[in-house]
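Sample intake sheet
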Amino acid sequence: MTRQNRLREFSRTKNKSHFGRFILFIFLIVIAATLAGGGLILFETEKPLVTVPKEVRFLGRNTSIPFRVTDKKSGIRSITITLEQQGESKPIRLYAKSFPRQSWFYGAGPTNFSGSVLFNSKKFKIKDGKAELVVTAHDFSLNRFFKGNETISRYAVLIDTKPPRISLQHTPRYIRPGGCGIVVYDLSESAVRQGVIVNGVFFQGFPLDGRKNRYISYVALTWNTKKLGNSMVVATDRAGNEAKDFFSMDLENVPLKKDRIYVSDAFLKRKMPKFKEHYP
């Protein structure tokens, strides 16, 4: 009897020991899964996405550069935009922004950020020629020894701060209300927009006889024009640099031609029936 009791007690102790080990095993699995899940979140490897909505190929004297950065996981940590040019000892920083950490998991920083930076050639004192626009973004991941995931996007650009040169070849000396004239001019380079402005109205220029960089613009005035304002040739190159060249015209006021037509009653009586047929 005593031996049976001892066996029963041993069996109970053994079962409790197995159950305790099982609970400990489950507990360790939960901890390991939690640590692994946290590690996957904290050390996620997805890089930020950098986009420049407008194709930036040329930088003029004042050029706006839009950009957008997205990071759907840990969030954006910092954005830096620099300009690198051969012969310069260090990059020129155009823009820099950092965000404070909001949490230790997803959403530690903003997931989406859009902005723009204004390139001003006088402010940054950079010379014309080839350069490289570099957009660098970091997120809040602890990857790369806590530095975060990094994206570097490079865009080849051409810096052009000189506006086109305009050379007037022909302008009207006189122009009358309701009249028209032609303006002929040469440009030192091709332009994305060029023409003549008279009294605030833009008249597009067109290539003349296939000649390189020579254009003609047909200008006109409304019949009730009382005075002439500024008249100018304008041209904007691909980098956004604008040039203007003013010229003068004299407004030739001429009396409006008037005439009077006499219509007899007999004529109207003959014609009215025909009008009624078409316009009852």
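Comment: The chain has a mean pLDDT of 84. The radius of gyration is 39 Å.
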